[in-house]
Amino acid sequence: MDRILQIFQNDLTCSICRNYFIDPITTDCGHSFCRTCLYHNWPNMSVLSHCSECQKAIQQTDFHTNVRLNQMVLTVKQGSLWHSLWSTENRCRIHMEAKQIFCEDQRSLLCINCSISQEHGAHRHCSIGEAAEQHREKLLETMCSLWEKCCENYRNLIVEIVTTKSWVIYVTSQGEAIRATYDELAPIESLEKHNHLERLQREGKEIFDQLRDSEVSMTNKRELLRGMYAELKEMYYKPDVQLLLDFGDILNRSEAVCEHMPQPVKAELTAVTISGMMTRFNFFKEIFSLHLGKTRAHDFLQGDLISLGIGCGIQGVPFIFPQSECFLYWGDIFFTHGQHYWELQMRDTWNWALGVCCEDWVEGNRNLQKAFYVLGCAKNDMHHSVFTTSPPVLQYVPKPTGLVGVFLDYEGESVTFVNPEESSLICRISSCSFSPHLRPIFCCCHSRLEIH
């Protein structure tokens, strides 16, 4: 009989914590764990991990409580509680009866006679088992909320780490783009060029220092959150009587830990007017017709989005982009030489790209390397990421919401993107490997095109 009971108890025990299940869930491979253990032990809080029992990949992201297993655990716990309550150590010294009642006002254990006495009669009472389960439900709810904060903080930390690592390189490349743009203008703008570059270095350093401080703050917050999560879990596992007596202010302390969550630094450079730039570009301005076609969910940008982490989960697992209607346009002319400039109205659209692509890609060869040079904007959760391709690089600039100008310098092997209304530089792709024939291209999931 003891052997059978032992096997039964083993079936109700989590292989990670070696305790009875807490909010048990069953993975797609058939093994069960505490929800809290599975979350807490996943490396880097990824939505993709491996089962500690069979090592198979766990692809699920939304787990449901195994109700039957949870009820079996509650039944076993009730049996254990019954043995504990009727032990000699848990007897009232006045009435020599088992303490079965929990006084919520004084947080003490009482026998039935004490609970109806003049001292305690007006207090709030319930059975020890019922009170313990109510406290555990509060702990579990708090752990779930705390875990969401852990994941939020980790996502923000990854953003900060990636931005910090790429920031110095980005500021340097922007400086080169600014120099190149001014060098193509009259020498009279040399003082403005100097001031512009000086401001870039000053602003770049300020943001870099903010990023480093933010990264440290998020790392410290991660340790506080995980430590609090472990403390809540430890409290959950305590026997009913000890749980009630030791509960204290743990929920208030958990709430305090979740306050003042550090947020990512807004790593964006200020747009600065470049005098004479638009006068030069407008000299090459062209208006042409574009053909409308259809493509599926930015097939032509998917690889670049994933390589930048825009279309990926925490550990680089690709998201499935929505199969929404996507409008793809390409020009009815092609460029083989010279300088060309055109503008498009973006308004408040998102998931778009504009620039140039090679003729062979338009004709159907979608496996070409460096087939297009574009500026793109992708929406991930509630955030927008601006980027360029060939090579894929994140651009730390505000999301363009008005006119965007494209300047192609075929012999200069560069494509420059500008904000015409502010006469400011968005970014510049240099050292391009253009194919013999280039076409203007625009793609967007949520808006039809306005050409200027």
UniProtKB/TrEMBL annotation:
Keywords (A to Z) from UniProt: Metal-binding, Zinc, Zinc-finger
Gene3D superfamilies xref list: 2.60.120.920, Classic Zinc Finger, Zinc/RING finger domain, C3HC4 (zinc finger)
Listed transmembrane segments: none
Residue ranges of every copy of the B box-type domain listed in the record: 87-128
Domain B30.2/SPRY: 268-452
SMART domains assigned to the protein according to its UniProt record, in alphabetical order: RING
Superkingdom per UniProt: Eukaryota
Residue span, RING-type domain: 14-55
Entry protein name: Uncharacterized protein
Species annotation: Pipistrellus nathusii
